[in-house]
Design a protein that fits this description.
By secondary structure, the chain is an alpha/beta fold. The chain folds into three domains: 10-314, Polyphosphate kinase middle domain (polyphosphate kinase like); 332-500, Endonuclease Chain A (Endonuclease, Chain A, 2-Layer Sandwich); 505-684, Endonuclease Chain A (Endonuclease, Chain A). It is 36% helix and 22% strand. The strands form four sheets. Strands 14, 18, 19, 20, 21, 23, 24, 25, 26 and 27 form a ten-stranded mixed sheet that branches. Strands 10, 11, 12, 13, 15, 16, 17 and 22 form an eight-stranded mixed sheet that branches. The chain has a six-stranded mixed sheet with strand order 2-4-3-7-8-9, with helices on both faces.
């Protein structure tokens, strides 16, 4: 079968961008899900909006660049850039209708029943509220506004990416004119106002400005005024080969990001046609890229509402990561020397990773610390420890990836701070992003030099470690320590090892390693031995990997995948993917870990990685795949993966190229994220492992 079948046919693949839109749709389903608490539903709806912004700024912008460059090569699903753009815009138009139907027809009414009122139109205000908002406008808002008239002597101003603005149509002695006013982001957008009812009532800042807009143009008559918002191309274009100084080049490109070409225009659906025509011409945008919105623009304001105090009964109880992986009474190096330590975030605290670097910085026996940083928090304790280590006279080498999208500015500041502290700082590699998560601590001990290593699937970010699910390994395995040294020598110099002990590194060896392990399962299946592949990742869109998975499936290899977002593979293709299942879990935490479990003919192997099965991870980034060999840790990783494969509350199953909720009838209910929370807390309380424990379901708001 596998020899005769052409697994590369475009009809066997899904378009990457359309698959991502399906992922955002799964998040929207969480906003619709009545078993989720009300403010959690608001949060999910807000996430769909922020996700869509980034999708347009990067992915849609990239496709438009291809079209402008007259690039016509089809993608793996056989779609040319123009076809992709048309399909994306049609899907997004439909998606945003569903988005706002969820907000208008469901969530607003439910909020009101809970005595939370959001005034989406200033006409809804009563007399007392009108007086309040008018005074608020005069005292707080008016002083920071800058109305910008548009006429022959004053051209249309540059509008900032993602900023909220109001377009005004005016009538004066010379006829009709236009003006624009930016809604200031220095003033909170969600304004609480007094209410005669027993309810907390809020109005949006743009409605207060719209109500008082005439005060900005007292010599003209305001015909109408409507909010609008644009999304710009924010994909940096950096010629690294020509850049004399990468840091300087990225700083220069960051300034340009604010003024990239307009790729999306959002306006209220009731906006005057003259305003829409005016904005369309000024933005130089096509009609299909204009989105007519039935409600307040930019639903990310719902996250600000979610963050307000006083609505705790409408939110899930905040989960506090458990502390049990390490003892506070013994130094961390002794504990790692005794056994490998597996960490499961955010269920378990990220503190052991922070403590690992903090203790290394202050330990007189530590000679050197080497680390890669992709994304870190705004007030990173890890950065502080690295600076302290340099101050303590240790050799500190840090690769700060300046090209981490939307974190470039933050990383530039950290890089400069680390350099000033005396660290050796590498600003990434030409042509590659360093996405691996690795720390090496070199320590002098009685028996000689010993290397301690942390490897992870997620970033060294103590803030997102409370929100993203990731796995990390602390080890002093000598073979891994040698490989870690080789990784940093490769990054900092011109060394390229011919072979590795335990680690597999992209972009040079990782693709071949994955293909070898998939084809090994095909071989074992042909020999009648145990053959399966269980894997978890964020995205799957690499054609060569998918072709080999199809071949493995056709050869009888059982393949179970947990893929959060993009999946270009199709299931249920006769004779091709009948042995493949794909689960997608959308829950309280963002699924981020990468796990790979191979049967290997009965000698099972388990790996963790920083990489997804995507061309960019395998070919254009420095990534690390590392084995989990400690039997207890290995067993635990397998249990984590199997638990997710058993999730029937928050999982969706890919059927062909569409997703369906898991059929729960007659099954014990399992929400994997809630289960891991409960498991971690029981371990923290010293109640031991969870083997044999009943599954813990997610509870609805009435439980």
């Amino acid at each position: 079968m596998s020899e005769k079948t052409d697994f590369s046919k475009p009809e066997y693949y899904q378009n990457r961008e359309l698959s991502w839109l399906k992922f955002n749709d799964r998040i929207l389903l969480e906003a619709k899900d009545k078993t989720n608490k009300l403010f959690e539903r608001l949060k999910f709806l807000s996430i769909t909006a922020s996700n869509l912004d980034e999708f347009f700024m990067v992915r849609v912008a990239s496709i438009k660049d291809m079209i402008d460059a007259k690039y016509t090569k089809p993608d793996i699903a056989g779609m040319k850039p123009k076809e992709q753009l048309l399909a994306i815009e049609n899907e997004t138009q439909d998606f945003m209708v569903r988005q706002y139907n969820t907000f208008n027809r469901s969530l607003l009414g439910l909020l009101e029943k809970k005595n939370v009122i959001i005034m989406t139109e200033h006409e809804q205000l009563d007399e007392e509220q009108k007086k309040y908002v008018d005074e608020y406008f005069d005292q707080t808002v008016y002083p920071v506004l800058t109305p910008m008239a548009v006429d022959s002597s004053r051209p249309f101003p540059l509008i900032r990416n993602k900023s909220l603005n109001i377009c005004v149509l005016l009538k004066g002695q010379e006829g009709e004119n236009f003006a624009t006013v930016q809604v200031p982001d220095v003033v909170g957008r969600v304004i609480e106002i007094p209410s005669a009812k027993k309810a907390r009532t809020f109005v949006l800042l743009e409605q207060i400005i719209e109500r008082n807009i005439g005060k900005l143009f007292d010599s003209h008559q305001v015909i109408c005024a409507y909010p609008y918002r644009i999304t710009r191309n924010a994909d940096l274009s950096i010629d690294e080969d020509e850049a004399a100084d990468l840091l300087e080049e990225i700083e220069k490109q960051l300034k340009k990001r604010k003024w990239g070409s307009v790729i999306r225009l959002e306006v209220e659906d009731k906006a005057d046609k003259r305003i829409i025509k005016f904005l369309k011409e000024e933005m130089k945008i096509e009609s299909q890229s204009i989105y007519h919105i039935n409600g307040p623009l930019d639903l990310t304001f719902l996250m600000k509402l979610y963050s307000l105090e006083g609505f705790e009964e409408l939110k899930d109880e905040k989960y506090i990561p458990a502390h049990y992986a390490l003892s506070d009474e013994e130094d961390i190096f002794s504990q790692i020397a005794r056994k490998d330590i597996l960490l499961h975030h955010p269920y378990e605290s990220f503190d052991p990773v922070v403590d690992f670097i903090r203790q290394a910085a202050n330990d007189e026996n530590v000679l050197a610390i080497k680390q890669t940083l992709y994304r870190v928090s705004g007030n990173s304790p890890i950065i502080a420890s690295l600076a302290k280590a340099a101050d303590n006279g240790k050799q500190v080498t840090v690769l700060v990836e300046l090209k981490a999208r939307f974190d470039e500015e933050n990383n530039i500041q950290w890089a400069k701070k680390l350099e000033k502290a005396g660290c050796h700082v590498i600003y990434g590699l030409v042509g590659l992003k360093t996405h691996s998560k690795i720390t090496l601590v070199v320590r002098r001990e009685e028996e000689g030099i010993k290397r301690y290593v942390h490897l992870g699937t997620g970033n060294y970010n103590d803030a997102t470690a409370k929100l993203y699910t990731d796995l990390g390994l602390l080890t002093c395995n000598s073979a891994i320590g040698e490989d870690a040294t080789a990784v940093f020598n490769m990054i900092s110099g011109y060394s390229e090892p011919k072979q590795w002990n335990k680690l597999s590194i992209a972009p040079y060896w990782l693709r071949d390693r994955f293909l070898y392990m998939i084809r090994r399962e095909i071989k074992y299946a042909g020999e009648g031995k145990e053959a399966f592949i269980n894997a978890k990742m964020n995205s799957l869109c690499d054609k060569e990997i998918i072709e080999n998975l199809y071949e493995a499936s056709a050869a009888g290899v059982k393949i179970q995948l947990v893929i959060r977002g993009i999946c270009c593979l199709k299931t249920d293709l006769a004779g091709i993917s009948e042995n493949i299942t794909v689960h997608s879990i959308v829950g309280t935490f963002l699924e981020h870990s990468r796990i790979f479990h191979f049967a290997n003919g009965g000698n099972e192997e388990v790996y963790l990685a920083s990489a997804d099965w995507m061309p960019r991870n395998l070919d254009k980034r420095v990534e690390i795949l590392f084995p989990v060999e400690d039997e207890k840790a290995k067993k635990r990783v397998i249990e984590i993966l199997n638990t997710q494969l058993s999730d029937n509350l928050k999982a969706h199953i890919l059927v062909g190229e569409t997703y369906e909720k898991v059929d729960k009838r007659g099954k014990v209910l399992l929400g994997s994220q809630a289960y891991f929370c409960e498991e971690a807390k029981k371990k923290e309380r010293g109640l031991g492992d969870s083997a044999g424990r009943s599954f813990i379901p997610m509870m609805d708001e009435n439980s």
